[in-house]
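The following record pairs a protein chain with its ligand, 6-O-phosphono-beta-D-galactopyranose.
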Amino acid sequence: MNNNFNKFPKDFLWGGALAANQCESGYKEGGKGLTTVDLCPAGENRRKVMEGKIDILRPIEGEYYPSHESIDFYHRFREDIALFAEMGFKVLRVSIAWSRLYPTGEELTPNQEGVKFYKDMFKEMVKLGIEPLVTLSHYEMPLELALKYNGWNDRSVIDMFVRFSKTCFEEFGEYAKLWLTFNEVDSIIRHPFTTAGIIPELCDGDEIKCCYQALHHQFVAAAIVTKMCHEIIPGSKMGCMLTKLMTYPRTCAPEDVLATQDKNLDNNFYADVMVLGEYPRLKTVQLKNNGHYPKMEEGDLQILKEGTVDFLSFSYYMTMTESVDPDAERVPGNTVLGVKNPYLKSSDWGWQIDPIGLRISLIELYDRYRIPLFIVENGIGAKDVVEDDGSIHDPYRIDYFRAHFKEMKKAVDAGVELMGYTSWAPIDLISASTSQITKRYGFIYVDQDDLGNGSHERKRKDSFYWYKKVIETNGEDLD
Ligand code: BGP
């Protein structure tokens, strides 16, 4: 436990986070099969596909598909990892595209070209002193499994995911000790197709029931592979990954407080299962009352008990407020809508910026679960301007990070065990919700527009040098 007041632990893991489908490209190269995200176009049809509207579940002529070219990390990973190393990264969070190893998900042995790609990537990271933090599933799955089985709704997908995970542990365990199962495991309800391959039209009229069934299968799969990870990779640690959606009551009217409590209990449900190893009683009753309690096999609850995680990781971008007033103004957040908080400013995309909310979240999560925490996504999507001399001044991004790091320090000071921090994202990449690369998150600029035009050249922003200094001083110098 860290006892140095107002200091990050000596071995604090500073770094950044990426997701294969938002950076790789090479969507059909090296034997890769299509994934659910490969069907998500840019523009207004994107959201419809993410939610699984079946009428657009095939490539549409004339649409641009950002995951196909992405920012070309598949070919440029050495150059990009060198830039991360230049900033002094201790850790890099990446995800593995399941369909690069198992193109349809149903093969019995992995595609060796895919294995080689990730092995080369991990070797490069380790060579430059960067520890991999690997997400097994970040918003994608082999498209075949979605079309043939209605994705995770079908129990047989558990075995296929376990086979894929076993390959990852056996092939990459030499390089990677830190793992995550499902990115934002709660997102299944918000975009069931990309997260879990669910096609609502195949859900017998009850999409939500399908989602909870699929979620249960993911919980079971996560518990199985958590146990397996420990057995195959000595000294490994497995975390769960939650979208932290902290909600405040808009007023102290008990009705608002109650509505807020509901939201927060729901947000905690996912971590309750993965950290505590059981469905919480209140959620169980709610699911049973709504007819959404999933079908379980004998032994499932025991599997959940035995496969709990070592640490809890989460993404944090903003907070929301809640109100029962139907006229309360609603604002956008990370694929959610919430009530506007008049005390907060917002990003260019309307997400409410709340550094203190990060401290509140850290304290709440640590107090509830009492296991180490890891912030694996946090950052601000903003418009950047390249000056004539090629420089990029992004004080708004530095301000955002500085304010959040100060609050992290205070949480650590209060006794929270925080393992590390990976910014989203250290390099500009494709936005999951809007597909715009011009919603820029990086310390590194990528010369590319929202339709993929540009040289793909990488440039260091002012925030690049600032973050380098933060890492060098282990968060001491935030000026
Ligand atoms: C998280 C996702 C990431 C990332 C981030 C920012 O929810 O895990 O994949 O995209 O949000 O969101 P966006 O890209 O929509 O701006």
